[in-house]
Design brief:
Shape: globular
Number of helices: 26
Distance between the termini: 38 Å
Bound molecules: 3-O-alpha-D-glucopyranosyl-D-fructose
Strand order of the largest sheet: 1-2-5-11-12-13-14-17
Structural class: alpha/beta
């Protein structure tokens, strides 16, 4: 089994001999040693007890049954640890002594819908070669637990957390897959929907039929008094699908009728975390999945887990208490498992999911860098980097032991999380800018290169979000249509240039995701430039949700062309080079901090990565389709004066000659949409 402990290639041979010698010496003891697992478990319980107990008691200590809750949690922990397989315990140990295993520059992730990529889990195993060829070692499989029948929000309405969606396979298929991934140092991420269950989940069915115990698992109301009061300050997530945040069920509780809190769709019922039984229920699911070999739990919709009257019921302090308590308990049993926060919130709310203040080191290890994602799309449309530079400067560094996941697109819409403060600071109006972005990416804005669609336009606020695949939003769909059309007067060369620019835009965005700081994720199909898929319009269960346009089935015919001398081959080749460059650049590991700087050119975004070893990397990104010039002195300032005058190497072009960066006001040139990752060249 290949593990994640890093060893220099030179040491590997000698280590193997050393290991063989040691193994021979301890052969008899090894069997006995396994029984010591329980000692390690007890040590962890001790180590993390405070991390769990402090927030847990702040949440629930007032209750009469508080002591019983503690006893029950103790039983859950022991049962889960008893069941944890030896191989997983080894992996835990390995990760405990290599705590930043997931922050390494070698980590690169991919996101896949099992059915759309390979039909089912067995099929995925067969297609693993594709993932291996891309050298991805963090595999996020989109929701795969058993969803409700019919509409299920792409799998985010789970009926049974202990079963895999039968269309995709079984729990043992999942375990099998996890084993295969672990065998060569890869990890598996799956979704755990913590905020709500499907209304067909056992708890919900019992609540609906009126069992008092289960009514308390959800947020239910006899009349509109409280819902109306909450609605005063609640935004709407899916105003098109279901206006408001509550749904009335006349048949509920024996015909009494009740309103149920449903933030998302009608069939997704928000859980009531004021009730510790819900906490324990979710803990069971976490431990169960950890024991199946899942390495990363993507905690869906975490900001919504705690409601408070008079607020937007997101990001409440109790959410962080809950996450810390869960984090500590799962660590006691399965310390190798990571928590990933899915909190698509305003920039100032985001960092807290990585644990700040009293939660430092105690919350999620990773979280989506939603702000970065929004800002790169914003800069691509406006060709201006001031808003991005300013906004990113406001985001504090990630707390030690945590990192972002950085991405360009995924299965959701893009919500334009741009604050009035940040927009105002660069002379923009946030509302008008969001409107511009929607019009630009919907292709309505004159001269726009994009093909996308507005998602969930809210008529009460005038706000909307955006759907579309990376390639289509970046102009490839339009450029290809032009090439295909025989429109009189179209110049072939101009058409080819549009194609070229679209490819450059895709790579520009991914270059930022790969170097800004965090685990970069490639969304399935982006590496071969898959376009929007409009077939959802003919599928009754999907037609109203245009997020399906960016959830296309894997185009294996196109994938076959990936090594060829064609458009697909070019995009794929560039992705491969990007992945390789990332994996060879130590400065990109998660312990490096990032500092954006003003390049003096409003079209060129610049940032420096500072590695704890003192190494530095300066990255420049031209967000316009014109050649741009940057004063060399600006770049040298970023690198620090010690290296000034030295030649620089673009680590993306290791075989190209080094770059001589001019000093002072002398200009350095960037091609349209070019990005460079520069570091001082090795002195020979
Ligand atoms: C998530 O997204 C999922 O990624 C979506 O696919 C689901 O529909 C949804 O949860 C419900 O399970 O509002 O528009 O701050 O923004 O949880 C997407 C987090 C969403 C929310 C996020 C949510």
């Amino acid at each position: 089994m290949q593990n994640q402990i890093y060893m220099s290639p030179e040491n590997q041979g000698v280590f193997l001999r050393f290991k063989t010698q040691l193994l021979a010496l301890v052969q008899t003891e090894r069997v006995k040693l396994q029984a010591r697992d329980w000692d390690f478990f007890m040590l962890r319980v001790e180590r993390y007890f405070g991390d769990f107990y402090d927030p847990f008691s702040r949440l629930y200590a007032g209750r009469e049954d508080f002591e019983q809750q503690l006893v029950a949690i103790g039983e859950q922990l022991v049962a889960a640890f008893r069941e944890r397989k030896h191989e997983l315990k080894l992996l835990d140990f390995e990760r405990e002594i290599t705590p930043n295993w997931f922050e390494r520059e070698t980590m690169v992730g991919g996101i896949y819908y099992v059915d759309r990529f390979a039909n089912d889990l067995k099929g995925l195993l067969e297609h693993l070669a594709y993932i291996k060829e891309l050298d991805l070692n963090y595999i996020h499989l989109m929701p795969l637990l058993k969803p409700r029948a019919g509409q299920n929000d792409g799998g985010y309405a789970v009926e049974d957390y202990c079963q895999v969606n039968p269309l995709l396979g079984s729990m043992s298929d999942l375990e099998d897959l996890a084993g295969h991934l672990h065998a060569d140092g890869r990890s598996l991420c799956i979704d755990l929907v913590v905020n709500h269950t499907a209304k067909e989940h056992d708890w919900a069915k019992r609540a609906r039929s009126g069992e008092t115990k289960y009514l308390d698992y959800y947020l239910t109301f006899d009349d509109r008094t409280l819902p109306d009061a909450y609605e005063q300050t609640l935004p709407q997530v899916f105003p098109d699908f279901k206006p408001g945040n509550f749904t009335y069920y006349p048949d509920m509780a024996g015909g009494q009728g009740k309103w149920v809190w449903t933030t998302f769709n009608e069939y997704q019922w928000d859980l009531n975390y004021h009730n510790p039984a819900v906490f324990r229920g979710m803990l069971d699911y976490m431990l169960f999945l950890a024991n199946r070999g899942v390495d990363i739990l993507r905690l869906d919709a975490v900001p919504f887990m705690w409601k408070r009257m008079g607020t937007n019921c997101q990001n409440q302090p109790e959410v962080h208490e809950l996450l810390q308590a869960f984090r500590a308990l799962v660590r006691m049993v399965a310390p190798g498992v990571l928590f990933k926060a899915e909190a698509i919130v305003a920039p100032y709310d985001l960092i807290h999911y990585l644990g700040t203040g009293s939660h430092i080191g105690r919350e999620c290890e990773i979280a989506y860098h939603n702000s970065l994602m929004v800002l790169i799309w914003s800069a691509l449309a406006s060709r201006k980097v001031a808003l991005m530079t300013h906004s990113l400067m406001q985001i504090p560094p990630t707390p030690p032991g945590t990192t972002w996941v950085t991405y360009v697109r995924l299965h959701d819409d893009i919500g334009w999380a741009i604050t009035p403060e940040n927009a105002g600071a660069v002379g923009e109006n946030d509302f008008l800018h969001r409107r511009f972005l929607n019009e630009f990416y919907a292709g309505i804005f004159p001269g726009s290169f994009a093909t996308g669609e507005v998602f969930q336009f809210d008529t009460t606020t005038g706000e909307g979000r955006m759907s579309g695949m990376t390639a289509s939003l970046a102009g490839l769909e339009q450029a290809l249509a032009e090439v295909g059309s025989s429109k009189v007067g179209g110049h072939e060369q101009a058409k080819q240039q549009q194609l070229d620019l679209a490819v450059r835009r895709i790579l520009l965005l991914y270059s930022v995701a790969f170097s800004y700081g965090g685990i970069p994720l490639i969304y399935m199909g982006d590496e071969i430039g898959l376009l929007n898929d409009y077939t959802f319009r003919h599928e009754p269960l999907k037609k109203d949700d245009n997020r399906w346009m960016h959830r296309p089935p894997m185009d294996w015919a196109k994938a076959e062309e990936r090594h060829g001398n064609n458009l697909t081959g070019r995009i794929y080749g560039e992705f491969r080079a990007l992945i390789a460059a990332r994996k060879h650049t130590l400065e990109l590991d998660g312990t490096s901090t990032v500092q954006p700087f003003w390049t003096g050119n409003e079209h060129v975004f610049g940032y420096v990565r500072y590695h704890p070893t003192g190494r530095r990397l300066v990255i420049l990104c031209n967000f316009s389709e014109q050649t741009q010039l940057v004063a060399g002195g600006r770049v040298w300032d970023g690198l620090g004066t010690i290296t000034s005058g030295q030649n620089l190497q673009d680590v993306r072009q290791p075989h190209s000659p080094t770059v001589t960066l001019p000093l002072g006001d002398n200009l350095f040139e960037l091609e349209p949409y070019q990005t460079v990752w520069l570091k001082p060249a090795k002195v020979v």
